[in-house]
Amino acid sequence: MKPPTELDAPPAPDADALAADPSVENPVAGIDQAVGDFTYDVKYEFDAGSGLNENVIRYISGVKKEADWILDFRLKAYQTFLDKPMPTHWATKDLENINFDKIRYYLAQGQKPKRTWDEVPDDIKKTFERLGIPEQERKFLAGVEAQFDSEAAYSNVKDIVAKQGVIFLNSTEALREHPEIFRKWFGKVIPTGDNKFSALNSAVFSGGSFIYVPPGVKVAMPLQAYFRINAENFGQFERTLIIADEGAEVTYMEGCTAPKFSTSTLHSAVVELVALKGAKIQYITVQNWAPNVFNLVTKRGLAMEDAEIKWIDCNIGSRLTMKYPGVVLKGKRARGEVVSIALANDGQHQDTGAKMIHAADDTSSLIVSKSISVGQGRATYRGVVHIPKHLKGCKNNTECDALLINTNSRTDTYPAIVVRGDTHAVQHEASVSKVSEDMIFYMQQRGLTEAQAMSLAVNGFVNDLVRQFPMEYSVELKRLIDLEMEGSVG
Amino acid sequence: MSASALPATPTEGLDSSRFAQHLSQRAYLPAWWLETKKAAFNQFTALPLPSRTDETWRFSNLKGLDLSGFTLPEDPASQIPNHSAFPQTAEIVFSNRQLVARSTVPAELAAKGVIFAPLDEALQNHGDLVKQYFQKHPAQLGSEKFVALNTAFTAAGALLYVPADVEVALPFVVQHTLTGNNVAAFPHTIVVLGPRAKATLVEFFISGGAATDRQLASGVNDLHAAEGAQLTYVGAQHWSRETLAFQVNSIVAERDARVLSLNLHLGGRQARHESNSRLLGPGAHSEMLALTVADGAQEFDQRTLQTHVAPHTTSNLLYKNALLDTAKTIFSGLIIVEPDAQKTDAYQKNRNLMLSDAAEAHSLPGLEIQANDVKCSHGSTSARIDAEQEFYLQSRGINPAESRRLLVAAFFEEVLEKLENEDLHRALTGLIASQFKR
After folding, report:
1. How far apart are CA B28 and CA A175, in angstroms?
2. For residue B158, is it within any domain?
3. Taking 80 as the threshold, does the pLDDT of residue A487 lie above it?
4. Contact A365, A330 (CB under 8 A)
């Protein structure tokens, strides 16, 4: 057992492996971006050290007692990772600031963390308070009861769905206990070599959720992810695979609804969804990483005949997020949807979007993206809509709206649309605007402060999307936006 | 361009000995011009061909960029096609890079200082003017190698200069024709409008001879409108069906200037068009229009940039493509609003009319906005003829083929109607209609 170095240190700025200063002070917006940055003194039983080589991968695989084929998969992925160039010919040069040798690829906690609510820093408590997160959940989110105490709540969910035949495990357990179900689709929707970061994830993945919903089963309650991610306490490279068998329906939610307290520097997940004939999967993410995290995630779903996959993706935190949830519309009449909200504040770049790959007749896709740039934040929409040869009757509609709050805020839109043939209907529209002065004036005249008015206007801008979120998420999201907007005017 | 691109090798046919010959024929031209050409040839040789990872060449057929085997023709063709049968102020005609005809500028305009001259002549008599505006604002949208090739070998070209407060109603015309197999042309046109001047320039790029002739054309334009000037530029491209064509446009509009550019793309096997509008002063406006009829196995690759540098500037882009057979079009547009360009109003629209099941339309409409008090939007649609409109016409007794023809014509009319000059409008409509009579 190696002594943990970076992660058990107090939140000293130089603990950040990426040498990035996530601008603790926010001169324009006046928001302390560092609210989520704190760590606990944690002892890890398993620690693969920093840097990546074959031994690290063998170590991870060994700790997990994995089958040989998984180790082979990991080692091959590692080679692919080394071979693949950084995608910096089209993406931001900020990626070059990632130092792969300083990153810790695997940490697992063997002990139960003994912590009380009193140990949580006051400002974090205050943030939770303002976000309106219930006490029970706050403890969980604060990492106070990350492991065993929350295991109970998690087990409840698990028991209920287990009665319906639903398998809900982490990646290690799932591949060990049900290879017959998961191996077939594992790494098939997102091949290892899809991009450098999917290859990296394939080499070092741990944690994440593997879910199988049997034919015709409709899971009534949304399955929550942060139980699983935090169960391993370090879910930077989590791997998720959700299979909804014919006619099944499932909603999955991941992320945290409060500032994350992670000093981690790279989060690179792979999420694969498989919706078989007539199945429906809805995947909801609310991402609010600390502003020193590179969030480079590959998400893609495969929708068979009459199946439906919907990504609801909300990005508020991180230093750089690059995430383009996609749907491969493989079966006739399949439907894909991406609903995306991004908020970029000072020092942040939200590079998000969607990919719709039509591969069967009469498939339809919808992309709705709204972004807000505050201070010197930069929000980017990047999308692909692909309708190849010999297909009939495909439809896509894409809408991108960007709101710019301050004079030096930045937004970009980079869609790519490929259409072959004359039986399709494809539309793309994007607009950029600021909050109208009339609107602000009207609200101020009714007694609101300028800041309140601005907050209300921004919430109004995203309101039609936020309404599609489950209740508790939408409430929290609105408050998060309020928090981010604070001090952005005047 | 990325390092993984093909190594730059001297191009057979357009190699250094051919360049030396080209240069020696022009020893009488100003020294700075010969130096510019030399530097450009070196740059052309040094730059790699575009590679797969070049974002500015995304979706383009890179295998089609074969520059080998082309020669510079020295003799004009005996037969020269003519598309410019409309009232005009003056005309300059090139065939196979040679000046074959020109009409002089009317005396009253010449007296006011209007200059309309072939490039080589302009270099001798108005060298400073050419020097001041030649590639002053390069477009830089990916074709730098082909622009360098143009600078190295250009001879056929024109300078149009209209001084302050002079308005010229009828268009100036430049015709470039290319006849023969494996021949190349490098037209370069410079238009400079002084403050409050007004003029129209129409440029034709046409192949004579067989439609199957393999040809190379790399053309460049520098269009400059000073304060309050009004410039209309029309470029009509009808190269042979086997031409590899590049055309790179640079548009600059100063305070309160208004530039309308309309490019018509009909010919070529693979034709790339780049256009960069820079709005440098408050009140400047650029209207960027393009029409493409893509049929057979043609590829049309259009890259645009609307750069809003100054506040209170406007731009409007409308690129329409009609796609038949197995044709392919690429539209990649970007609006850049620089940090100080508040009150920008920019629009960008690409519409693809799909008329065949095997045609392929790529659309990449982009925005990069760094100021918040702006109105910017873009739209892109790819769809077939509206079934309801077709039904309406047919229910009025118009047969299916005719109703389709009418609807395609209407599709183009939205762009053509922006031309004030009716004769020009009629000439272009006729040119487009000829594409559908097959």
Report:
1. 79
2. yes
3. no
4. no
Question: Cβ distance B304 to B316 under 8 Å?
Answer: no
- Does residue B118 fall inside a structural domain? yes
> B219 has which bridge partners?
B247
Q: What's the pLDDT band for A24 if we cut at 50, 70, 90?
A: very low
Distances in Å between the Cα of B181 and the Cα atoms of B79, B96, B398 are 15, 11, 43
In terms of domains, do B254 and B347 share one?
yes
CA distance A190 to chain B (A): 21
Domain hosting residue B390, numbered range: 385-438
B109 and B227 co-located in one domain? yes
Q: Are B172 and B302 found together in one domain? A: yes
pLDDT in tens, B363-395: 999 999 999 899 999 999 999 988 899 999 999
**Alpha carbons B120 and A347: distance in angstroms, whole number:** 53
Residues of B in contact with A416 (CB under 8 A): 58-59, 362-364
How much is the pTM? 0.86
Long-range contacts made by residues A12-21, C-beta under 8 angstroms, separation at least 24?
A15/A263, A16/A263, A16/A265, A16/A292, A17/A50, A17/A99, A17/A102, A17/A103, A17/A265, A18/A97, A18/A98, A18/A99, A18/A102, A18/A265, A18/A292, A18/A294, A19/A97, A19/A99, A20/A97, A20/A292, A20/A319
Q: Do B359 and A409 count as a contact with CB atoms less than 8 A apart? A: no
**pLDDT digit string (tens) for A326-345?**
999 999 999 999 999 999 99
Residue in chain B lying closest to A89 (CA): B53
Do the chains contact at A418 and B365, CB–CB below 8 Å? no
C-alpha distance across the termini of chain B, in Å: 41
| A49-92 pLDDT tens trace | 778 899 999 998 998 889 999 999 999 999 999 999 998 888 88
- Both tokens of A406, joined, read 């301050």
Contact B363 A423 (CB under 8 A): no
B83/B232 same-domain check: yes
Residues B321 and B412 in one domain: no
Q: Inter-chain contact B55–A413, Cβ cutoff 8 Å?
A: no
B55's tokens: 């974002």
Q: Could you give the number of structural domains in chain B? A: 2
List the beta bridge partners of residue B395.
none
Does residue B280 lie in a domain region? yes
Other CB atoms closer than 10 Å to residue B406's CB: what's the count?
15
Please name the residues in contact with A150: beta carbons below 8 A apart, sequence gap of 6 or more: A140, A227, A230, A231
Q: How many residues does chain A have?
A: 490
CA quadruple B115, B119, B125, B130: dihedral, nearest 10: 80
The conformation of residue A45, written as its DSSP 8-state character, comes to S
- Whole-angstrom Cα distance, residue B278 to residue B299? 27
Query: Is B76 inside any structural domain?
Result: yes
Question: How far apart (Å, rounded) are the C-alpha atoms in residues B315 and B349?
Answer: 11
Query: DSSP H helical segments within B83-195, as ranges?
Result: 107-111, 119-125, 127-133, 144-153
- State the Cα–Cα distance between residues B24 and B29, nearest whole angstrom: 10
Between B375 and A148, the higher pLDDT residue = B375
B145 phi, psi to nearest 5 deg: -60, -40
* CB distance A280 to A247 below 8 Å: no
Q: Are B158 and B304 found together in one domain? A: yes
Q: Is B58 on the interface with A (CB under 8 A)?
A: yes
